[in-house]
Specification:
Blueprint lengths: L2 H13 L2 H7 L4 H15 L4 E3 L4 E3 L1 H28 L4 E7 L7 H12 L3 E7 L2 H10 L4 E6 L6 E16 L20 E4 L6 H13 L5 E5 L3 H9 L5 E4 L10 E5 L6 E9 L5 H17 L1
Parallel strand pairs: 3-4, 3-5, 7-8
Antiparallel strand pairs: 1-2, 5-11, 6-9, 6-10, 6-11
Helix pairs in contact: 1-2, 1-4, 5-9
């Protein structure tokens, strides 16, 4: 039995007339009658009661039609699912991200993606840049949103966003009332709250370089693993922190933010994926991510 036999049967069952069914199928009537007889022979049942005046479904034919409808509907769904999978419209994808992407980049990427591809199951994992690299190579995540620059011959990288570092200080800090950008060296005697280097090497080294370029080494009094924790400690008067500009999207009382004067260091965020990645899901995510960041930047 072939799929065409089922479609021939449905046409005759719905028309209850071989000539009209043949016209509907764009074929001659004799071959259609022959195909239906072959189907009946293969099934071992009579599907139609034929007379010179009319064609009627037998009880077996009515039962068979009901189940054929289900088969054809399931087949259409299966074909549609395969086509959508090829287009990257359904399936599962796992995205890694650094804590620095939480307050700006991640919402800008995920919201339009979920809107355009509602049938894709997307999971997100917060991982350091180093851990994301390893997870990409191990196939544990499909895409990384991490700090750049990174070099790895097995991965593709594309910077999608850059933002300056700013200084976060308690609202009652002597410099909080100062308007405009502030020189970093004005904080050379301050206590600094930092993310440890093993949680984000690039992020950590960039902050150290900002301080060194200003002529001092930061006095690190507290190390925390989350940016929002560092901001909370700043608000509590435990010190100051150099943080990415997007952290201002996190509303915390008791904090004052100021731009840095003469600082050219920026936090670069990149997408990362394997060189041998063939999944349409990954490539549609990357394409939409580029468009979303460009549109919303």
């Amino acid at each position: 039995m072939e799929l065409r036999h089922l479609r021939y049967f449905v046409a005759v069952a719905e028309e209850l007339h071989f000539t009209r069914a043949a016209e509907r199928l764009n074929m001659a009537q004799p071959p259609l009658s022959q195909q239906i007889r072959q189907l009946e022979s293969e099934l071992g049942v009579q599907l139609f009661q034929r007379t010179k005046r009319q064609v009627e479904l037998t009880a077996a034919g009515k039962n068979f039609l009901k189940n054929v409808y289900k088969i054809l509907i399931d087949l259409d769904k299966t074909c549609d699912s395969a086509q959508r999978a090829q287009k990257g419209e359904i399936g599962n994808i796992v995205v890694g991200f650094t804590g620095t992407a939480t307050y700006d980049i991640l919402p800008k990427l995920l919201q339009p993606y979920r809107s355009e591809f509602p049938f894709v199951d997307i999971s997100v994992l917060q991982l350091s840049t180093t851990d994301q690299i390893q997870s990409l190579l191990n196939g544990e995540i499909n895409i990384g949103i991490l700090c750049a620059p990174i070099k790895n011959s097995q991965l593709n990288f594309e910077v999608i966003h850059q933002e300056p570092f700013i200084i976060a200080m308690p609202r009652n800090h002597p410099l909080a009332s100062k308007s405009g950008p502030i020189e970093v060296q004005e904080f050379s005697k301050e206590l600094f709250i930092m993310i440890p280097r093993n949680s984000g090497q690039i992020y950590y080294d960039t902050i150290i370089n900002i301080c060194h370029n200003a002529g001092f080494s930061p006095n690190i009094t507290q190390e925390v693993h989350e940016l929002h924790t560092s901001i909370s400690l700043v608000a509590a008067g435990m010190g100051v922190a150099l943080v990415p500009d997007s952290i201002q999207n996190l509303r915390v009382r008791g904090i004052t933010y100021r731009q840095l004067k003469n600082s050219v260091s920026t936090l670069k965020t990149a997408l990362a994926w394997r060189n041998d990645e063939t999944s349409p899901l990954v490539h549609t995510f990357i394409a939409l991510a580029k468009k979303s960041i460009k549109k919303l930047a």
